[in-house]
Write a structure and sequence with these properties.
The complex is a heterodimer of chains A (about 210) and B (about 200). A two-stranded antiparallel ribbon of chain A has the order 1-2. In chain A, α5 runs parallel beside α7. Helix content of chain A is about 60%, strand content about 5%. Chain A is built from 8 helices and 2 strands. Chain A is rod-shaped and about 100 Å long. Chain A is an all-alpha fold. Chain B has about 200 residues and is mainly α. Helices cover about 80% and strands about 0% of the residues of chain B. In chain B, α7 packs antiparallel against α10 and α9 packs across α10. The termini of chain B are far apart. The chains are: A mainly alpha (about 210), B mainly alpha (about 200). The interface between A and B is large, with 58 and 72 residues.
């Protein structure tokens, strides 16, 4: 037998062989009974040097294990179904991502709808609404208005947001898209009806 | 050089369905595993049964082995657990020879020895293997003997042996190989003779 091969076997037994060489030799070792017998004797030499008491050096253990494993299916048969089950997962991954994105978009839109004003409600707080306290100043046209505490800030979906949604409408469902746009249109029309020019506000204050 | 590359290459082959590679792993670790299990059970035959069970469990669990730890460390844990379970289940089951043990320790010892000597030729062969290997080691040149003993007894790596013996790693590899070759030559003679003798004894 090739001395270099035996030398490699000895080094492999000690975990001192390069991984690439190990791969090649492992393949040969698993099939070559001569190498396997030598490999087994290397183990015996080690056991004797370590004086492993109680160990039967000619124990038929390896043969018994081998006989039991003959009835076992090869491990590749176990691992194959797992690989097959992974394939559909890979296929569904982009779809699952899209579904998550759509869900997030829907939640965002619903949240925006809850923040949109009710029909008929003023969108912009009047700066000098009736009942507000005006502080008179002596002989000056300037005046200061102290606004009453407002119940809650009113948020209007911005045009930029609407443009963004329209531009990315391919990723959202038609229903969600329609909801957002209708909310935006409602808010725009409401804002147009209630906004007052700044000059009018000044006039009221004076 | 990655540690455990040798075992890992065999493990990967087993995971791909090569049972012969697992045979190589059993051959490599059977003695260590039996010795380990004998910390829990005194009887060598029982230790071998437990070691066999541990190997089979390891084979079945190999698809889950990812190589995060060394293969032997993993196998070691399986063997320890198997041995502990075996001891527990043995203690739970009624032991027929307990009375004998209490009444007569000698008879208990004999039972243990009888299990050992199920194959008398096996014991003879084991003793002969031991004496042959020891004689072969004694006959080795000093540098070969030191290298193989540092490797097998102290568990040093080739690099550590090279540092200890003040020589290149390649020389260590060659010395260990030549030592094994010399011992193996004698061992083969014993195995061939031993098998013949076993038939005579049988």
């Amino acid at each position: 037998m090739n001395e270099e091969l035996d030398s490699q076997l000895s080094a492999m037994f000690d975990d001192e062989l390069l991984p690439a060489e190990c791969e090649l030799l492992a393949r040969r070792l698993s099939r070559d009974e001569y190498l396997k017998a030598r490999w087994g004797r290397y183990a015996i030499v080690g056991a004797v040097i370590r004086a492993e008491r109680g160990v039967r050096l000619n124990a038929p253990l390896a043969g018994r294990v081998n006989a039991v494993l003959l009835a076992e299916p090869a491990l590749a048969a176990h691992t194959a179904p797992r690989d097959r089950s992974r394939a559909p997962l890979r296929w569904w991954r982009p779809l699952a991502g899209a579904a998550v994105a759509a869900g997030v978009a829907t939640v965002s839109i619903l949240w925006l709808r809850t923040q949109a004003p009710l029909p008929g409600a003023p969108l912009v707080t009047q700066l000098a609404a009736p009942g507000q306290t005006t502080l008179p100043t002596a002989g000056q046209g300037d005046s200061y208005v102290v606004p009453r505490p407002r119940p809650a800030a009113v948020m209007v979906p911005s045009t930029e947001l609407a443009n963004y949604v329209v531009a990315h409408s391919v990723f959202s469902s038609p229903v969600a898209r329609r909801n957002l746009l209708s909310a935006f249109m409602t808010s725009e029309s409401a804002t147009a009806g209630t906004e007052e020019p700044q000059s009018d506000v000044k006039a009221i204050a004076q | 050089m990655s540690a455990d590359a040798s075992d890992l290459s065999l493990v990967r082959r087993v995971q791909r369905g090569d049972k012969g590679a697992f045979d190589a792993l059993v051959l490599k670790y059977q003695h260590k595993l039996v010795k380990l299990v004998m910390r829990y059970v005194r009887n060598p035959a029982e230790a071998e049964d437990i070691a066999q069970e541990a190997f089979i469990k390891a084979y079945r669990a190999l698809p889950q082995f990812r190589g995060d730890s060394a293969f032997y460390t993993w196998l070691y844990r399986i063997a320890i657990n198997t041995a502990k379970n075996a001891v527990v289940s043995r203690d739970r089951s009624p032991v027929e020879y307990d009375l004998d043990r209490n009444n007569n320790d000698e008879s208990y010892d004999m039972q243990g020895r009888m299990k050992d000597s199920e194959t008398p030729e096996g014991l003879v062969l084991t003793d002969e293997i031991r004496s042959t290997v020891n004689a072969a080691i004694d006959a080795l040149p000093e540098d070969l003997r030191t290298a193989i003993v540092l490797r097998e007894l102290e568990g040093l790596s080739y690099e550590e042996i090279a540092a200890a013996m003040d020589c290149p790693v390649g020389t260590v590899r060659s010395r260990i190989f030549r030592a094994r070759e010399a011992i193996d030559r004698r061992l083969r003679e014993v195995f061939e003779g031993g098998l013949g003798r076993a038939e005579e004894l049988g």
